[in-house]
Design a protein that fits this description.
It is built from eight helices and 18 strands. The protein starts with 23 loop residues before the first strand and ends with a strand. The longest helix is centred in the first third of the chain and has 15 residues. Strand 4 and strand 5 form a beta hairpin. It has a domain of 207 residues: 4-Layer Sandwich (CNF1/YfiH-like putative cysteine hydrolases), CATH 3.60.140. By secondary structure, it is of the alpha+beta class. The strands form four sheets. Strands 1-2-3-18-10-6-8 form a seven-stranded mixed beta sheet. It has a six-stranded mixed beta sheet with strand order 7-9-12-11-13-17.
Length: 306
């Protein structure tokens, strides 16, 4: 049975068609497949990974999937067992998983010990061994930050609201404030998310982003037939005579977040994007835009070994 897709969406690519380019790699542990950044894997004190959908015990329309978030269609017992499988595959069975109650905000939490209650926010940071920071996604952008000098880490969840609120740039600032991290020392991994190929949004977001980012026009593109003279021409022209804005545009969330990292002081050579779209590769990831309430959740984690 094929994974359900909304009308008008392109067919999902087969699982094996997802091309993983260096410095990224896909590691298999049993049926669990974990996306990793080779630069992170070379740090002996660091543990990290971006989950994929295969290899779990949750049944999603006839598919056994690794759903790592509590959803209405899955049981709590399944999710907890999936998390145990994922942490075991990572080699993090003894780590304390710190998950956030994500609210599409710019709220950031420093974590020294496991909290008694879930933390409401969308980013966390730590330099405590045995703590595994994690963010859930199903189209939004997961970003892992690592400071090899101070041995500090952060995990960030950035949808369009968090991106607009500059959560990633603020997390870099929090790493400096709490641990003395220099932006020029940081490494960043931008994981799988909905790509500009598939993320169609209302044109009103252009105005909102333009109010916050000088380079906002670079984050958007119009759906075009190829006959239009200039994409987003209406954004750069002054009345009278300017063309009316299109109803929808495509938003490049990875590019917008990369821009924040550069603005925060990271070197371009230290920013690594997987380039994998969750919509295009529905056999390997979950996509809320395609699956809606029956989407699973991916988990992106980073931690420091004891």
């Amino acid at each position: 049975m094929p994974i359900p897709r909304k009308a008008g969406q392109p067919p999902a690519r087969p699982l094996g068609s997802a091309r993983i380019f260096k410095p990224w790699s896909l590691r298999s542990v049993g049926k669990v497949r974990i996306l990793e950044l080779e630069g992170f894997s070379k740090l002996p004190w660091l543990l990290h990974g971006f989950s994929t959908s295969p290899g779990g015990i949750s049944d999603l329309d006839g598919h056994q999937v690794l759903n790592l978030g509590f959803t209405g269609w899955d049981t709590r017992e399944n999710v907890l067992e999936n998390r145990r499988h994922f942490q075991s595959a990572l080699g993090a069975s003894k780590f304390e998983l710190i998950k956030l109650k994500q609210i599409h905000s710019a709220v950031i939490w420093p974590v020294a010990t496991a909290p008694k209650e879930p933390l409401r926010g969308d980013a966390s940071l730590s330099k405590s061994p045995g703590i595994l920071l994690g963010v859930e996604t199903a189209d939004c952008v997961p970003i892992l930050l690592v400071d090899p000098q101070k041995r500090a880490v952060a995990a960030v969840h950035a949808g369009w609201r968090g991106t607009l609120a500059r959560i990633l740039e603020k997390t870099v600032g929090e790493l400096h404030a709490h641990y003395g991290s220099k932006p020029s020392d940081l490494l960043a991994a931008i994981g799988p998310c909905i790509g500009p190929c598939c993320y169609e949004v209302g044109a009103e977001l252009v105005t909102r982003f333009a109010s916050q980012f000088v380079e906002a026009a670079e984050f958007f593109d119009e759906p075009r037939t190829g006959e239009e003279p200039n994409p987003l021409q209406w954004l750069n022209m002054m009345p009278p005579g300017h063309q009316p804005p299109p109803k929808n545009v495509h938003l490049d969330l990875p590019k917008a977040n990369r821009s924040q990292l550069l603005a925060a002081g990271l070197f371009d050579k230290n920013i690594f994007s997987s380039g994998l779209c969750t919509v295009c590769h529905l056999g390997l990831f979950f996509s809320y835009r395609i699956q809606g309430p029956r989407s699973g959740r991916l988990l992106s984690v980073v931690g420091i070994k004891k």
